[in-house]
Specification:
241 residues, alpha/beta, Rossmann fold, 39% helix, globular
Length: 241
């Protein structure tokens, strides 16, 4: 059974008298342990797709099953509970709370759901060590580099022990060297911990490392199979020149 299963997903928005069709009949399955990229230009629908999978938005029509449960008819309170317990998020702008230190930023989603604080602090310490932040637990975000801030975001996504981590353009605000480090870290977590990662990106550096690339254009999946890695690597090579 797939961890994520979308069948005939559509999403439309009303902008005044105009209806924008962000997704048009998307079918997609994501298995446990995948390291998959949804590739597409700006406006292709990739962020909308991640928002629906992440229970941040609801589809206009279609079937959405997560871990065998139908979520398309759930209200937003139910979706918030599922989101908090089963889904981790990594955003391009980090979305850290500036007045909180690294420990407090990492543990924040677990405090919202009422996890016991003593056990949580130990889990935060372990996750921080895994992502290379063991020496920075008392630092505030403005005392960290961009790469370190993204590591905090990764740790915050992992501390809830989610079934899938969704990353929306996670390297967009990072330089090339830092991007490679962040990608390598997520690949390591995928391999060692079997964490399922699903990205949206048009960064060829991320696509070159993906084990599966799904292409989206104009709200439709163009290629939902394992993509030609040689093609993606070639794009990455051109981007590095």
């Amino acid at each position: 059974m797939a961890l994520v299963e979308l069948v005939g997903i559509t999403k439309s928005y009303e902008l005044g008298r105009t209806v924008v069709h962000a997704l048009n009949g998307v079918d997609l399955q994501v298995e446990r342990g995948e390291f998959t990229v949804v590739m597409g230009p700006s406006g292709s629908g990739k962020t909308t797709l991640l928002n629906i999978i992440g229970c941040l938005d609801r589809a206009t029509a279609g079937t959405f099953r997560f871990d065998g449960e139908e979520l398309g008819d759930r209200d937003f309170n139910d979706l918030a509970e599922i989101r908090n317990r089963k889904i981790g998020f990594i955003f391009q702008s980090f979305n850290l709370i500036p007045v909180l230190n690294v420990t407090e930023n990492i543990e924040f989603p677990c405090l919202i759901r009422g996890d016991p604080k003593k056990a949580l602090r130990e889990r935060v310490r372990q996750v921080a060590e895994e992502v290379g932040l063991g020496k920075f637990l008392a630092h505030k975000p403005d005392e960290l580099s961009g790469g370190q801030r993204q590591r905090v975001a990764i740790a915050r996504a992992l501390v809830t022990q989610p079934q899938v981590v969704l990353a929306d353009e996670p390297t967009a605000n990072l330089d090339s060297g830092t991007s490679e480090q962040i990608i390598d870290l997520m690949l390591e977590l995928n391999a060692k911990e079997n964490v399922t990662f699903l990205f949206s990106t048009h960064d060829p550096r991320v696509m070159a490392h993906a084990r599966r690339v799904v292409h989206i254009a104009d709200g439709r999946l163009v290629d939902g199979t394992d993509s030609g890695r040689a093609e993606v690597a070639a794009v990455a090579g051109m981007g590095a020149r």
